[in-house]
Amino acid sequence: MKNTGWKKLFYVLTITYFVFVLILAAALYLMSNMYNQLNMQHAETMKNEITEILYTQETSDLPQVLSAFKAENNVDLVVITPNELIYSSMPTADFSVLNKTVNQEQISFYGAFTVEQDGLTYQVWTAVYKINSEQFFLIIMTAFVLAVLVLACIIIVLLLLVFRNSIKPLSRLRDNILKLRSYQLDEVAAKANANEYDRLSQELSEFTDDLQEKMDVIGTQYSQLERELQKKQEQHISKINLVRSLIHDAKTPVSLELLNISQLKKNDGNIEENEQRLQNMEQNNKALLADILDIMKILNELTM
């Protein structure tokens, strides 16, 4: 659940980052249009406020009220009726002359309009100057800097999320693999708060524990086999020595047989001596046969 939460947060922050970037790019691209639109709205607001003054104020109070309005706002204003001049901030009240003398680069709107109030027609000429561009761009740049700071914070948070949930688990996994390669099985460990990489590290830790147990079993079995092999080798050496001893013992009956045969050849006339020698030869043959059987039995055991 925690792993899913950080992923959702990562996606939300990433989308927010790209939305901020798109907004900033659009704002920079449309900055000139925004400035012109703002000037148009400002001019429309000035016209509405002038109309509101003409609707709500007495004719005798209009010069003072319009003068105060002119002082508070960056506008030029001329108000006349068919019979008299009500207020003028310009050197002339001739609208055609005023239209020719205005500096259009500094003005967002200029022109004349009429207002009907209590049967009296007011003719109004006004020139609304553009909003201070330096102030406008200062506000824009302040907003831009704040947006950049927000983007920087988003990037920092994203980097922290990636480092905490991807880089660090990968580092732990790498360390565990290196420890496994160097047979440091006891030092292979996994984190309790696991994500995909930590779970992989946990599986690696479980694998190393199982491997350690199997290696311990194999070591025990190897030691047992080694002891059994040593025991068999000792038995084998003992049997070899026994065979050598039997072979050595078998030489004596053979030597006696050869001696008796030689004496039988020399003493053909003495029957009793010959019979005694034959009995001795029979006994020697039995002893020799017993030794041969023992040797064959031992040899059979060695080959099994």
Automatic annotation (TrEMBL):
The reply on keyword Metal-binding is: no
Entry superkingdom: Bacteria
Q: Which PROSITE patterns match?
A: HAMP
From which residue to which does any coiled coil extend? 197-235, 264-291
The name on file for this protein is HAMP domain-containing protein
Spans traversing the lipid bilayer: 9-31, 136-163
GO BP field: signal transduction
Note the InterPro entries from the entry. HAMP_dom
**A GO cellular component annotation in the UniProt record:** membrane
Residues in HAMP domain copies: 164-216
Source organism (scientific name): Culicoidibacter larvae
Q: Does the keyword Cytoplasm apply?
A: no
Q: Which UniProt keywords apply?
A: Coiled coil, Membrane, Transmembrane, Transmembrane helix
